[in-house]
Amino acid sequence: MRLAHISDPHFGTEEAPVRDALREDLLREAPDLVVLTGDITQRARQAQFRAARAFLDSLAPLPVLTLPGNHDLPLFDLFTRFTAPYRHYRRHICASLSPLWRGRRVAVVGVNSTRMLRHKHGELPAPLVEQVARQLAALGESFKVVALHHPLEIIEPSDRRNRVRGADAALAAWIAAGADLFLGGHIHLPYCVATGDGSRDALVLQAGTSMSTRRRNGRPNSYNLVRFVPIALRGAGEAGLRRIEIEERDHDARIGRFTIVTCREAVCTGSGWSLLSQGAVPLPG
């Protein structure tokens, strides 16, 4: 099972060559699911949503799970923001703000971390955290993934204000309910970290901006390709372990393609997920 994690295309600021290269790479790799973690548009305008819809349609037959970001709520149209903030998103992208995808071994739970009264920052109220925890606990798939727009963990002190409100409570409840991997965007910075209280850890995977000119500190556009391996095959002593392999793919403007720049591998033992390796050489197989 493979999952492509893209985020923050910000249609209205997209670069056409990068957009087309992303489409080509996704269709070439043909993941089982594409997850888009928000900020689909730059200013929640209908023309931007239509452009996003055309891009998503061009990925057919790949299934796509989408979530709204703070940029997908109207900023200047205050009447729409306070009366029907998700109207354009629901009309053009997805009717559900909390989609669920279930495969043979992997389930992905979508969580809406945006709030009408918050211009930029996200929030996870206690009732929502409890609802998602119950949903996770009821799933029987080998791998449980939670996707949302705002980051649950940060690596740069300057991003402290961008971490979603209620992150600590959400991580504790959702990891206890069986979550293995959290997907996020918002800050246009790709990274992967293990998180938890030590008794059971999970992974937080962030994606950069997939095609927008709003690149952070000159970093290239990027997305993640995730492979879920239910049984490790590298040695008899590892039988029964679960593995996640993650490729960060960056857009190389010199050749007009997305290429693998970082490979990460994580393994799940009795205490949860641990990152084992990271390098610039593609993983075998």
Automatic annotation (TrEMBL):
<feature type="domain" description="Calcineurin-like phosphoesterase">
    <location>
        <begin position="1"/>
        <end position="189"/>
    </location>
</feature>
<keyword id="KW-0269">Exonuclease</keyword>
<dbReference type="GO" id="GO:0046872">
    <property type="term" value="F:metal ion binding"/>
</dbReference>
<dbReference type="InterPro" id="IPR050884">
    <property type="entry name" value="CNP_phosphodiesterase-III"/>
</dbReference>
<protein>
    <submittedName>
        <fullName>DNA repair exonuclease</fullName>
    </submittedName>
</protein>
<dbReference type="InterPro" id="IPR029052">
    <property type="entry name" value="Metallo-depent_PP-like"/>
</dbReference>
<dbReference type="Pfam" id="PF00149">
    <property type="entry name" value="Metallophos"/>
</dbReference>
<keyword id="KW-0408">Iron</keyword>
<keyword id="KW-0540">Nuclease</keyword>
<dbReference type="InterPro" id="IPR004843">
    <property type="entry name" value="Calcineurin-like_PHP"/>
</dbReference>
<keyword id="KW-0378">Hydrolase</keyword>
<dbReference type="GO" id="GO:0004527">
    <property type="term" value="F:exonuclease activity"/>
</dbReference>
<comment type="similarity">
    <text>Belongs to the cyclic nucleotide phosphodiesterase class-III family.</text>
</comment>
<keyword id="KW-0479">Metal-binding</keyword>
